[in-house]
TrEMBL record:
PROSITE patterns: ASP_GLU_RACEMASE_2 (PS00924). It comes from Anaeroselena agilis. SUPFAM superfamilies: Aspartate/glutamate racemase. Its EC number is 5.1.1.-. Keywords: Isomerase. GO terms for molecular function: isomerase activity. Belongs to the aspartate/glutamate racemases family. This is Amino acid racemase.
Length: 230
């Protein structure tokens, strides 16, 4: 049986979702007769947030590489980072990683392509939305990707930090995020909304919008489990 490693802690709420989601999906696919082998290295969210906010990407990368090395030392055969923002430096981490890494961005692009999406809206942290991470990746798949205005990006970011990162969902926060989503979906004539932050599924659910909602956490978990069972 393969052993999987997860870089967690950024943030803790989404790491819990990954842990439970991987177990549930694995048991569903195996008929409930087994559990996956997994090791988690949980990073300090405050430290990682400060590095991202200050755009100290080399040190941010170093922390992620060190985490993957810890997972490898724990016997993991492949790994993933349980955060979209961490994927801003995915290529740099992957180049130094002792383990193969499953990319949340690439798996989401494949899912959107296979679903026939042509125009998508990207929500996430301000770091992710302003980086061009998803827009550049989707372009390689022939899909147009759009992000909110700078002001809207900050409003979404302020919902994620500190509330969603702590697992707190407030009605006024949900209203803010849905208002921006509805405006953008209409303005860009988009097919889908990409929940490009692993905490956003806490606040946006299927049925909230008249559009396809692609939950990057679920997509990533599915890819991880498929790799475990391959």
């Amino acid at each position: 049986m393969k052993k999987f490693g997860l870089v967690g802690g950024i943030g803790p709420a989404s790491t819990l979702d990954y842990y439970k989601g991987i177990i549930d999906a694995y048991r569903d696919k195996t008929g409930g007769v087994s559990y996956p082998l997994m090791v988690i290295d949980s990073l300090n969210l405050d430290e990682m947030y400060a590095l991202a906010a200050n755009k100290t990407w080399p040190e941010f990368t170093d922390r992620l590489v060190a985490s993957v090395e810890t997972l490898a030392a724990g016997g993991a055969e492949f790994a993933a980072m349980a955060a979209n923002t961490a994927h801003i430096v995915f290529d740099a981490v992957s180049a130094r990683s002792p383990l193969p890494l499953v990319s949340i961005v690439e798996e989401t692009c494949k899912k959107a392509r296979d679903g026939g999406c042509r125009r998508v809206i990207i929500f996430g942290t301000a770091f992710t939305m302003s980086s061009g991470l998803y827009a550049d990746a989707f372009a390689r798949y022939g899909i147009d990707a759009f992000v909110p205005t700078v002001e809207e990006q900050q409003a979404i970011h302020n919902v994620i930090f500190p509330n969603l990162q702590a697992g707190i969902v407030l009605p006024e926060d949900k209203n803010t995020v849905l208002r921006i989503a509805r405006r953008m979906l209409a303005a860009e004539n988009a097919d889908a909304l990409i929940l490009g932050c692993t905490e956003l599924p806490l606040i946006i659910k299927d049925g909230d919008l008249d559009a396809i909602i692609l939950d990057t956490t679920r997509i990533h978990i599915e890819a991880i489990v498929n790799r475990l069972l391959a």
